[in-house]
Structure prediction request, 483 residues.
Amino acid sequence: MSTEVKTPQAMCRAAMVRRDITPPIGIYHRMWGAALHDRATGVHRPLEATLLWVEPMLKSMGSAQVLLSLDHCILDSNEIQNIRKAITQTTGLASQNIVVALTHTHGAGWMSRSRSDLPGGELLGPYLDSLAIQMGELAKQAAEKVAPCTMLFGSGRCNLAAYRDYFDEERKRFVCGFDPTGSADDMLMLAKIVDDSGATVGTLINYACHPTTLAWDNTLISPDWVGAMKETVERELGGLTLFLQGASGDLGPREGFVGDTSIADRNGRQVAYSALSALTAFPPPQTKFVYAGPVISGTAIGTWTHQVLSADERTSLGHWYWEEFCVELPYRHDLPTIEQTLKEKEYWEEEENRARTLSDDLRVRDCRAQVEQRTRQLNRLNHLVPGRSYPLKVQVGFVGQAILIFVPGELYQSFQMVLRERFAPTPLFVTTLSNDWQPGYIPPANKYGYEIYQEVIAATAPGCSEMLVEAIYRRLKMLQTKS
Prediction:
């Protein structure tokens, strides 16, 4: 029978900082094919950059690591590299020690220089240039504030995320939307960072749910549900909240694809309250919960108390190891060509012009969506690494008694569920859209062949998700054995 309960923890040095990165009103904003607007007309909530600088207690144990979370949907590879270079220039930190993760809010708009010739596109270049400079300054600010801290790890549950591969029986096709019969991973992975005075420096919230509450009817710059979530947690606990997007390729809000910002805020509060329910119960840092024996009070009452960890028990809390490695993922054999996509785009542009001549607004919207899909397909094809496979870079970190995994692209929920099951009870954080959006969606093999949106635009072949799971699992097991 167990007489003690230990909370997974880490001893480190850390600091969290933030900066408002809201683009100017009027900037190119269109993210959705069905949207009829191009420019942002206002701001729902500010977009934010939240940065965690974390390093081992002793410099001899390893280098510092930067985790930067940006309220953006996707950024081109070169933009993320510019941010990492700026941080390197101001701090001296190597590029491989910097993770730039995107919250994936679709309300931020598409921030790509490839859209510079469109209405509001003239503001994209200056904004992106400024963003990189600001992130370099932000990292330097964090480096100057680091102090000894304890990170406490735990988990909670939230049912905002829902399965979103819905089969439309009437039209005999899959659509991307809430499926009430599907199952969804409701796991919240949480970390609370506390300094030696007991003050909350910040929290990490790792959850898999597309920030797609707001869609084509929304014309406001918005962090979607992530904004209200951060605000609510910070109001209750203090410190800053850094959000890490999980494997949400097949997960989205139960109520989404709307223009009502109050629904985005409500969704965010739902995640926040779920996280707070678990975070509030976290024990004091560097303690364990120990059975203290019975007290006679009419009956024998079993009492428990928080006990400070011994020096030997604290040894594992300082564990620190980070590594980057590459997994080659083969491209699908039927990957569309640039020539084919250009022809399809030209066809839909002609159809759009014809619909405008006929004043058929619904047809115009459909055609614009088709043109937009081909435009994005061209963007993906032009940015893929040449060859037969995509060299996907994975970053893993052992921080005290927890494991952190960072991968580019968008994975399905099964990716994180399998890895967490294999490493249970070790807390395992899975963050997607890290350091690159490419190669896009990486669905599991059993999702190919049904013309589901995520599968249709996927660049990698069936089986790549499973291949990636095995590669990461084997690498982590080997590293665990070594340590």
Q: What stands out?
A: The mean pLDDT is 95. The longest strand covers residues 9-20. Residues 338-383 form one domain. The radius of gyration is 23 Å.
